[in-house]
């Protein structure tokens, strides 16, 4: 939070309208500023205006706000501009003598969205939600009024507890018993409700189970086994027919593939022959180029190449020396003309330094453009993330749609079949053991006594075992049909995991969007600040142009263009250096002439050596000048390079041709092996086709009649059309069988639906019982907790102790260890009272009361404690950039002030906040340069911002 501007009218001794801008460059750049003036001039009134605009309250006046209006005036107002989280707000409050206690008229203008909030209640609630601080917390965090600064350190234990209760709203713990009792009654009512639900669900479940038992008895009377056997035979015939069709198609495909491989083998052999022919031609060309390369590889040619390079270096050195000599001559001429006049370089340098400082301020506009580009880039990134978010949402919807297609009822039925089969197996084992026991005991006397009864038991056991075996066969058949459901269930679980991963990715996208939005808001605030600074710097442009014109008049246009550069201060230093080195330039002129003469001599000697080598190598080059020699020699080098490139290309081509030959030979070998493999597969497929036709004939002869059984004897590899017609004919017989079992399936479906309903009812009943157990457990815990809280009076004291210890920890670790490392704040552990003690490490860790501190020590320890309390109060996301200290510095002597002020500066550097000090002490006026001076003339106060 930052206070930007304060405008007020007719407040206390300030008659008329007054404006105080805290965003001026002087106040923002200074870490600490002073609000100074004589006693009673109205220094603390500035803080009263801030709290009045934000909370409609004045710390020193209590409820009677009307007393702050200037005498003789009937109305007053305060307008405060402040910034929170990069967003600018303006609060307006109007006072009238008719409203004695509270102002009625309040407005809040939100500049970022042009929204205006009216009404005292709405404005105060909105400001409190923005600051996340109430009035008392604001006075402990942003402003420290008179009499409140050292209050927390020096107050009595009861007063400390009252301060903690008031700031952190600990009165809520007094009402804890009421809340626990209400929660206990709600839980008790919920238990009664769950008991009624349990009774209702149990009655419905009993009725449905009786209906399910009746329906199962009906299904057991239907013999479906015969129908299933017939259906299985027809399906087997269809399967064999389809397998024969697929085998026939594979056989024909293999024949086509073998024909293609034979054609491929023929083309590969032709390609190998062409490669061998190309290889012989390339080899002959390489041998011819080897003869041309010998000339360029001899030592004389390399010596010639080095001499030409040396000649070029000499030519360039001579040119550079001539250029440097020309520069020295120009510098001598330039300095000579300027030196003869009555020229004051220090005055020119002073004007240049002023313009450099003004020029650096112009860079704010470039900074503004870079911030604007950064903001636009972040907004584009935000749009891209929004598109990704939309795609991820569509992906989650698609996965949810695919999950809903899974037939969960079939999976439940499949699992039920497995359980039912296990139950049947146990019954079969049980009754078989009883039957064997009866059969073994036929010769015993006990058996003969109840012979007729035992014979009936044996017959019943046999019938029951036969029935259970038939039922097992039916269950096994249904399980085979539904075996595919296991794979579908695994796929369903996989989709569930995908959905979870997509949700995590969507959460990451939302987090990133939130971070980017925060960065955009921060950039908007920086842009508004840069815009204001640009407008302020326009005033400096006129002074910059005036200084520029004066420099141009003194040194002339040529020297101005050459040496006056505000990007490069080195040029003005070079100009100053030239004025001091006139004699050095003269000596350098003489040395350069001697060096140029020596270079020309070496150039002529090297040229004679080049001529001798050219005659030896029989090369005809021009010697008119170095440029023509270099140009013609470059042609020779280009020819050498061309020969080398062509030779390297031929070597590479020969290698590639050899690789292609090896590759083609390998391919030919592989193709031949593939042809042999295909022949083996053809034989295997033909045998498979014959076996399938044989099995199909057996099915026809054993299961049902067929009009054209004799046609099966004539089937061969070209009978694909006949097999397809046969498959269609067999498939048509399924319709007749389906009609016979349709009625059974309807009954079975009703049975399955009822079973599913019963299972769901059992789940609901278990869920209700689970909730009932949790509610009973919660009721017991609430009862115990309620009794503990009612009988105990230490909960609020525990919270107070925790908060005070944490505040002392923050004060010690974050502030005192930097400014007073020998001091550490503690509480009296031997007492339950909140007595503050100080441990002095210099004095052998002696623990003493805070009342023994000197004035300066008490001031800084109180400030550290207040800042720690401020850190504890404020929201961690609320950045407070400034605070005001309205404390009686007049009670401190100059020695104490000399001790306090460096420590206070250290506080400012640690926290990074802007500190405003309200005082009339002369010593502070000398130490703090940035001041807001309050002058009171004829009982009327005036404000001025000064840099002393």
Automatic annotation (TrEMBL):
<dbReference type="InterPro" id="IPR027417">
    <property type="entry name" value="P-loop_NTPase"/>
</dbReference>
<keyword id="KW-0175">Coiled coil</keyword>
<feature type="coiled-coil region">
    <location>
        <begin position="751"/>
        <end position="778"/>
    </location>
</feature>
<keyword id="KW-0269">Exonuclease</keyword>
<feature type="coiled-coil region">
    <location>
        <begin position="575"/>
        <end position="602"/>
    </location>
</feature>
<feature type="coiled-coil region">
    <location>
        <begin position="654"/>
        <end position="688"/>
    </location>
</feature>
<dbReference type="Pfam" id="PF13558">
    <property type="entry name" value="SbcC_Walker_B"/>
</dbReference>
<dbReference type="GO" id="GO:0004527">
    <property type="term" value="F:exonuclease activity"/>
</dbReference>
<dbReference type="InterPro" id="IPR038729">
    <property type="entry name" value="Rad50/SbcC_AAA"/>
</dbReference>
<dbReference type="Pfam" id="PF13476">
    <property type="entry name" value="AAA_23"/>
</dbReference>
<feature type="domain" description="Rad50/SbcC-type AAA">
    <location>
        <begin position="5"/>
        <end position="202"/>
    </location>
</feature>
<keyword id="KW-0540">Nuclease</keyword>
<dbReference type="GO" id="GO:0006302">
    <property type="term" value="P:double-strand break repair"/>
</dbReference>
<feature type="coiled-coil region">
    <location>
        <begin position="361"/>
        <end position="395"/>
    </location>
</feature>
<protein>
    <submittedName>
        <fullName>Exonuclease SbcC</fullName>
    </submittedName>
</protein>
<dbReference type="GO" id="GO:0016887">
    <property type="term" value="F:ATP hydrolysis activity"/>
</dbReference>
<keyword id="KW-0378">Hydrolase</keyword>
């Amino acid at each position: 939070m930052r206070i930007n501007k304060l405008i007020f009218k007719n407040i206390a001794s300030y008659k008329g309208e007054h404006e105080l801008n805290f965003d001026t460059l002087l106040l923002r750049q200074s870490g600490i500023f002073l609000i100074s003036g004589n006693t009673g001039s109205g220094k603390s009134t500035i803080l009263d205006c801030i709290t009045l605009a934000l909370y409609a309250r004045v710390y020193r006046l209590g409820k009677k706000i009307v007393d702050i209006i200037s005498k003789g005036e009937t109305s007053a107002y305060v307008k405060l501009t402040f910034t929170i989280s990069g967003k600018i707000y303006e609060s307006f409050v109007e006072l009238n003598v008719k409203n004695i206690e509270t102002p009625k008229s309040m407005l809040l203008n939100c500049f970022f969205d042009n929204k205006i909030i009216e009404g005292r209640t709405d404005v105060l609630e909105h400001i409190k939600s923005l600051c996340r601080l109430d009035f008392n917390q604001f006075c402990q965090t942003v402003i420290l009024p008179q009499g409140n600064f050292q209050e927390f350190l020096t107050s009595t234990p009861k007063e400390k507890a009252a301060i903690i209760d008031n700031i952190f709203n600990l009165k809520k713990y007094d009402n804890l018993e009421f809340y626990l009792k209400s929660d206990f009654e709600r839980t008790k009512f919920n238990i009664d409700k769950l008991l009624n639900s349990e009774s209702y669900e149990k009655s419905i479940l009993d009725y449905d189970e009786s209906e399910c038992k009746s329906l199962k008895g009906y299904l057991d009377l239907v013999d479906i086994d015969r129908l299933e056997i017939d259906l299985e035979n027809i399906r087997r015939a269809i399967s064999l027919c389809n397998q024969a069709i697929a085998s026939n198609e594979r056989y024909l495909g293999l024949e086509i593939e073998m024909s293609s491989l034979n054609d491929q083998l023929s083309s590969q052999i032709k390609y190998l022959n062409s490669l061998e022919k190309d290889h012989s031609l390339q080899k002959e060309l390489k041998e011819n180029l080897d003869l041309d390369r010998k000339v360029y590889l001899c030592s004389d040619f390399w010596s010639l190449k080095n001499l030409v390079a040396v000649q070029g270096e000499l030519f360039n050195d001579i040119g550079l020396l001539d250029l440097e000599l020309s520069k020295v001559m120009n510098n001598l001429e330039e300095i000579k003309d300027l030196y003869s006049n009555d020229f004051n370089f220090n005055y020119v340098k002073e004007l240049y330094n002023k313009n450099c400082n003004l020029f650096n301020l112009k860079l704010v506009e470039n900074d503004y453009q870079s911030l604007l580009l950064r903001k636009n880039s972040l907004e584009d990134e935000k749009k891209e993330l929004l598109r990704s978010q939309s795609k991820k949402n569509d992906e989650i919807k698609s996965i949810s749609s695919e999950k809903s297609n899974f037939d969960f009822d079939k999976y439940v039925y499949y699992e039920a079949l497995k359980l039912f089969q296990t139950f049947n197996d146990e019954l079969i084992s049980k009754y078989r053991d009883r039957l064997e026991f009866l059969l073994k005991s036929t010769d015993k006397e006990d058996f003969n006594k109840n012979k007729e009864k035992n014979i009936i038991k044996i017959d019943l056991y046999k019938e029951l075992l036969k029935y259970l075996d038939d039922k097992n066969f039916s269950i096994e058949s249904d399980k085979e049909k539904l075996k595919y459901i296991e794979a579908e269930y695994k796929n369903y679980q996989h989709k569930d995991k995908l959905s979870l991963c997509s949700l995590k990715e969507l959460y990451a996208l939302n987090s990133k969007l939130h971070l980017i939005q925060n960065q955009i808001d921060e950039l908007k605030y920086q842009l508004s600040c840069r815009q204001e600074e640009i407008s302020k710097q326009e005033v400096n442009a006129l002074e910059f142009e005036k200084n520029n014109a004066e420099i141009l008049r003194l040194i002339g246009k040529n020297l101005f263009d050459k040496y006056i550069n505000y990007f490069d201060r080195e040029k003005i230093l070079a100009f100053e250096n030239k004025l001091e080195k006139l004699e050095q330039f003269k000596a350098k002129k003489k040395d350069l002439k001697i060096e140029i003469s020596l270079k020309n001599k070496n150039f002529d000697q090297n040229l004679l050596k080049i001529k001798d080598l050219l005659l030896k190598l029989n090369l005809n080059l021009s010697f008119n000048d170095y440029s023509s020699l270099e140009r013609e020699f470059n042609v020779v080098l280009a020819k050498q390079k061309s020969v080398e490139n062509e030779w390297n290309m031929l070597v590479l081509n020969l290698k590639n041709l050899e690789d292609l030959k090896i590759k083609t030979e390998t391919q030919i070998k592989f193709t031949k092996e593939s042809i042999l493999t295909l022949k083996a597969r053809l034989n295997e497929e033909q045998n498979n086709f014959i076996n399938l036709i044989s099995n199909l004939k057996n099915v026809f002869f054993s299961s049902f009649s067929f009009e054209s059984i004799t046609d099966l004897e004539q089937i061969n590899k070209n009978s694909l059309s006949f097999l397809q017609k046969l498959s269609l004919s067999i498939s048509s017989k399924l319709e007749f069988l389906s009609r016979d079992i349709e009625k059974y399936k309807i009954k079975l479906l009703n049975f399955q639906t009822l079973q599913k309903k019963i299972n769901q009812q059992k789940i609901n009943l278990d869920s209700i019982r689970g909730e009932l157990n949790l509610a009973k457990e919660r009721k017991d815990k609430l009862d115990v907790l309620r009794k503990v809280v009612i009988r105990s009076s230490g909960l609020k004291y525990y919270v107070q102790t925790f908060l005070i210890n944490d505040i002392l920890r923050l004060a010690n670790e974050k502030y005192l260890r930097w400014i007073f490392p020998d001091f550490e704040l503690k509480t009296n552990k031997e007492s339950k009272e909140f007595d503050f003690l100080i441990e002095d490490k210099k004095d052998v860790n002696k623990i003493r009361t805070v009342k023994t501190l000197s004035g300066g020590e008490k001031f800084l320890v109180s400030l550290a404690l207040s800042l720690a309390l401020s850190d504890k109060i404020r929201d961690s996301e609320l950045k407070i950039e400034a605070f005001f200290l309205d404390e009686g510095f007049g009670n401190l002597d100059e020695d104490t002030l000399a001790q306090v002020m460096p420590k206070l500066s250290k506080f400012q550097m640690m926290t990074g906040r802007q500190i405003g000090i309200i005082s009339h002490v002369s010593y502070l006026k000398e130490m703090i340069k940035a001041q807001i001076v309050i002058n009171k003339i004829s009982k009327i106060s005036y404000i001025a911002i000064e840099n002393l």
